[in-house]
Each structure stands twice: as structure tokens, then as C-alpha cells.
Amino acid sequence: MKFKINLFLRLFYLFVKSIVLVSFGVFYRKETSHNEHHFKTPGPCIIICNHPNTMVDVLHVAKKKKAIVHFIANAGMFSTAIGNWFFTTFFCIKVERPKDVDGRRINNADSFKKAADFLGRYGTLLIAAEGSSKLERRLRKIKTGGARIAFDTMQKNNWELPLKVLPAGITYEDPKKARYDLFFNFGESIDLLDYKEKYETDPARAVKQLTADIQASMQNLLLHTEPEDEDIDKMVQKLERIHKNEFGNEHAAQFFISKKWIDKLLDLKYNQAAEYESIKQKVNTYCDAITKHKLTDQAIQEKANYFVNWIGFIILSIPALLGWLNNIQAFHLPNFIMRKTGLYPGYTATVKILLAVFLFPLTYWLQFRLISFLLLYPYSYLIYLICIVVLGFIALFYSRKWQKHKTDIIWRKLKKQNTPLYTEIKQQRSEIISTVFSQLST
Hints:
Layout: H1 7-27, E1 31-34, H2 36-39, E2 45-49, H3 55-64, E3 69-74, H4 81-89, E4 92-95, H5 109-120, E5 124-127, H6 145-156, E6 164-172, E7 182-186, E8 190-191, H7 196-201, H8 203-220, H9 230-247, H10 251-271, H11 273-292, H12 297-301, H13 306-326, H14 328-341, H15 348-374, H16 380-417, H17 419-441
Parallel strand pairs: 1-7, 2-5, 2-6, 3-4, 3-5
Antiparallel strand pairs: 6-7, 6-8
């Protein structure tokens, strides 16, 4: 049975999805998926994803699914008349959280009924089951709402519906910045029929069991550590930078290496504390040293040719300056908005993408109109418009390379002014590469 939707809503969904595909394709450098065949399970299904990066998480997952995805959304989005009309009309089902009800009793009965009716029509429902967004790699405790909706749906359909839960994990290389990679990891589908007997015997226990099973599956899809093991996550992130710089691993390949490191470090922390502390000291000593002296691991690696870089910077300086001047709103407006509004940092990517969708076309159109009056040669203004977009990417590339080059300059000065410290830092890095990575790979 295929989910049916009226033509207007279908066309609107496809229009919005095309915008998301284009804007995300520009903002992110590369997407890689693992076990995507699990995600192709047809509706009815409930997608459960992690939620570190606000709105972009659910849009990332939804665009990967070849279906008209509907979303469980927090009641705060429906608080105004316009918001209530828009999100109710366009693919969202409201659920209340404690922060949404000002102390009164939560009532989601009608929302759960709408979700069950939607799934009963072979729909695809997406839930960010952590309930809120937090910019971290671990999975927080997921709510029971997804399991309760699943069981309500099965009951209303006499357990004859082929309903599945599809776990999906997203790991960002850098969640707040443009032109970095992201990695999708999809888990095996969970069949609700496997829980029928348990639910009929003890519904509350079945809800807890399904929630726990989803939690375990989701944790396996991410670089998850428990809050008490935050020191391990911090250490792994430091090691990732060194490892990527030394061996050139892409984000997706590094994910599986980091996953093994977490398992190894957890084992060492609780079974071989002395070895764990030795590794921790080596990593932190090196990273503290480069932070103190305003260096980066890339500078200490010394793979790039310093003088070739200088020539490149000189050649690209004019195109980069033109790119910056013509795209100044892209480089400064998002950070200005974040500072002035005090928004949670996890909204950074959302703000940047929304500006790209709504503000940049207007800005480029105004520039297009201005140049079309000034330039007489036919279609030369179109060439100009294409050039300012290309120059914008050159300016972004230049700014990042310039930040790296500044640390190269500091590193070269340190080599001349404090040779013992220079040698010590080099030795610390070499020891991490030769011993720590070996210890973690066994």
C-alpha cells in the first residue's frame, strides 16, 4: 500500500526538498552513507535520529528518504497563529514537552492519535527522540514517545501493519562551519511484530524494552560515550585531528577508526588505568602545548611548502578580496546574528543555510540588476554574477588557508627562537604517532 497525499502538498514538499538538496549540497562538502540499504525500508516506518544540530538534523535525514516524510515537532513551534497554521498544514505533528506547557499537565493524546492515523496510511514519520538539541556527539537518553506511538499504531491496526523503526545516526566533521563533511550511519530496522507478545502481557515493560533497544542501536551508530566518560570523547577528538593530518583520512573512514579508539580507551580506563593515564597525559601535554603557543597540529606536521604557500597567497589575494567584498554578508552576517540574538550555538549552521536560501539570492539579484545597467556588453553581467559566486568560494578557501599559514609563521619563529621547545613539541607528536596510535590499534 502506498501513502497518498494531495497533489498540492506533494508538489510543495518536492519544491522544499529541492531547495534543501541544493542548499545543503553547497553548504556541506561531502556526504557519505553506511548501510543505506537499511534506510530504504518502505513505509509505514518511524525514523529515529540523533539531534545535535537543531533543524538541519531532521532535514538531512528526511532528504535521504524517498518518501513524503512527516515530522514530530515540539509545541513551541506552534505557539503563534501563523506557526500553528504552517506546521500543522505542512507535514508536522505537535507534541508537548514539559518546557512547552508552563507547569500544566502534558496532553499528547490527540497528537499520538494523529501520528497513529498517519502511520496507518503507510506514512513515514521522523522523530528526533532525544527531545531537544545539544551540540555533542553522544546520544542522550531518548524519550519513550516513539515507542508509545509505534505501539498505539499497531494496536489501532490489530497488529496487521508491517511497521518498522529505522534508526539513523548523523556525525558531523564540524557542525557549525560550511564546506565540511558529514557521515550517515543507518541501523537495521526494528520490527514491531517482535514485541507483540510482550506488549500484550505488559505494555509499560514493552515500551521500556523497545525504547532501550532503539537507544542501544542508536548508540552503536554514533561516536557515543557516556557523560562520565567525556574525557575519552575529548581525547578522541584531539587524536582525530592528529590522525587526519598525518594520514589524510576522510571523515567517513575516520569514524570507524574513532569508534575502535573509544572502545579501546573505555577498556583501558576501567581495566588498565595506568596505561590509560599514560596515553591521556601524552595527548593532553602535546595539545596543551600547541594551544598555549597558538599553534595547530597541521603547522607542526610541516608537510606544506612554506614558500610555495606564500606565492599562492599572493596570487589569490586579489580574487579572495573581491570574493570577500561581493559576499560580505556570507562571511559576517551569520556571526553577527548569533552574537546579537544570543542563540544557542547549534543554530549556527541553520542560520547560515537560511541566509543562503533567502538572503543571498536577493543580494545577488540586486548586484545583477546594478551591473546589468552599468555593463553594455550583452550578457557580461551574467558572467559577473557567476564570477562573484566562484570568488566567494575562493575567499572561503583563502581565509582558511591564511589561518593555517599564520600558525606556520608562529611555528617557524619558535624554531628559530626556542629550538629546545620546538624539538620537544615535535617529539611529543612523534610519540603519539608511533606509540599511542599503535596502542589503540591493538
